[in-house]
Amino acid sequence: MATLIDTTRAHRHPEKRNRPDTEVLRKPDWLRVKAPGSKGYLETRNIVKSKGLVTVCEEAACPNIGECWTIRHATMMIMGDTCTRACAFCNVITGQPQALDPTEPQRVADAVAEMGLAHVVITSVDRDDLDDGGSAHFAAVVRAIRATSPVTTVEILTPDFLRKPVAAAEEIIDARPDVFNHNLETVPRLYLKIRPGARYYHSLRLLERVKERDPAQFTKSGLMVGLGETKEEVMQVMDDMRSAGVDFLTIGQYLQPTRKHAPIDRFWTPDEFKALEAIAYAKGFLMVSASPLTRSSHHAGEDFARLRAAREAQVRSAPAATV
Ligand code: SF4
After folding, report:
1. What pTM does this model have?
2. Residue 52: is it exposed, middle or buried by C-beta count within 10 angstroms (0-12/13-18/19+)?
């Protein structure tokens, strides 16, 4: 069933302008959310605006913004609002980005302190235009938050650093975020259609590299479903992630930002998400969040506490080493 044409966001994607319109499916009830507008939401918005920050919550048109901003949970997007990739699922603006702002690391750190965040998630646009993909800047943001808010735990959601020197990703790993997240987004068969600028095995290798270099760092990755993947393909990706040592898996329903974006193949039901969650736990993930509205950073603070507790329980139950 078709719904209204979304023309408000189409101008953000010049590279998609000449694509044929696709039908936008009407959302089922389980994906309907309340319009944002609470007191906490407005306070979070004021802080974000007054510090001149960009959030992925707004740029990606996330359906959870009302809920998250009410409890002051905003995911900041660094290195500008313009991405050098043009993924078929993503609502972030595509184009030629601005120069990096050297004041950004401290501005982000100040906002984290002002919001009194116990846990913060930082993500970024892809910066293929920069020699290091922006890794030095990303690492500087992590260090500035650590210096300004030493007890805040830091989760990062990074680009893939494809075709950048190996040292680029390593610089961020060495800044020692608590959680290193890089989303695989979809199954390998759909990469050329959905994530044409990325390579599945490169992304998987990045996650593996984090564990090799700093085994104490939690790794996290996410998938969207509803793009035409099969359950078997999702299960294969779970196995690939476990082989790369990924601790935490998120799975959510893909929502189509405009008629020019990849169409929704189908809506997975809440019961199907529950089944995926059970399978993922059986495959050995420490933490799994799988639901229609799951996003990488949704409930990230509570999930981090559970992730840490799950690792401690695993260590306690491990058989003692013999000499
Ligand atoms: S789920 Fe993440 S991106 Fe969406 S509103 Fe919440 S913090 Fe922002």
Report:
1. 0.93
2. exposed
